[in-house]
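Researcher: Sequence recovery benchmark, item below. Answer with residues only.
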């Protein structure tokens, strides 16, 4: 693959760089990510990455944007459309991306949308939810609550993120005779179905908001 005269490698795109960054973070952890290491993954100099992202902060913003792009590409609800199935699809799509890229969880949990592209997407979602009959404040609250729920439950499901291995507790082999209910949970698996827990929590939240 050749390098263009302006320093841009032919075939290299913003999306390809961000997908490579997601893969790197999954393998090595967020703290290990640098422009130099990402360039090495892509077979280019770090300066080539700077053509697309002027600094690491912009790259991190781009990773948040890319996570949402991968989570849900459908249009926001149109006027008179039900917003409930749209928000359900969004939350399940968001969880799927976070499970596929657990290294991004710390970033998703702590870094709000900040780039013009990300803010444009969020503004479009809010406009669609308003057109579907939701007040602006409630639409914003719901997006925040559902995103926070998704991140929190997914982090609990993953148990650890790349770069933080060995920090999770281990109950295997522990004598739980003094904790009969917990012992039954671990023996039977009741209450440990992450898919069911997530789907039920989302449905309960959406039903509650729909009833307001």
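Model:
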């Amino acid at each position: 693959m050749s390098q263009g005269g302006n320093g841009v490698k032919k075939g290299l795109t913003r999306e390809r760089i961000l997908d490579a960054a997601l893969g790197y973070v999954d393998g090595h952890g967020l703290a290990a990510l640098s422009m130099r290491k990402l360039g090495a993954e892509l077979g280019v100099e770090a300066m080539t990455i700077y053509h697309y992202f002027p600094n690491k902060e912009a790259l991190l913003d781009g990773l948040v944007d890319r996570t949402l792009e991968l989570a849900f590409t459908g249009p926001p609800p149109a006027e008179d459309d039900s917003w409930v199935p749209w928000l359900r699809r969004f939350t399940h799509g968001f969880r799927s991306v976070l499970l596929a890229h657990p290294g991004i969880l710390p970033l998703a949990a702590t870094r709000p949308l900040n780039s013009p592209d990300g803010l444009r997407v969020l503004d479009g979602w809010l406009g669609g939810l308003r057109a579907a009959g939701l007040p602006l404040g409630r639409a914003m609250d719901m997006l925040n609550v559902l995103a926070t729920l998704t991140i929190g439950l997914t982090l609990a499901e993953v148990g650890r993120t790349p770069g933080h291995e060995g920090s999770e507790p281990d109950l295997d082999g522990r004598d739980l005779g003094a904790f009969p209910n917990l012992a039954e949970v671990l023996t039977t698996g009741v209450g440990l179905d992450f898919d069911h827990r997530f789907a039920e929590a989302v449905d309960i939240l959406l039903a509650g908001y729909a009833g307001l």
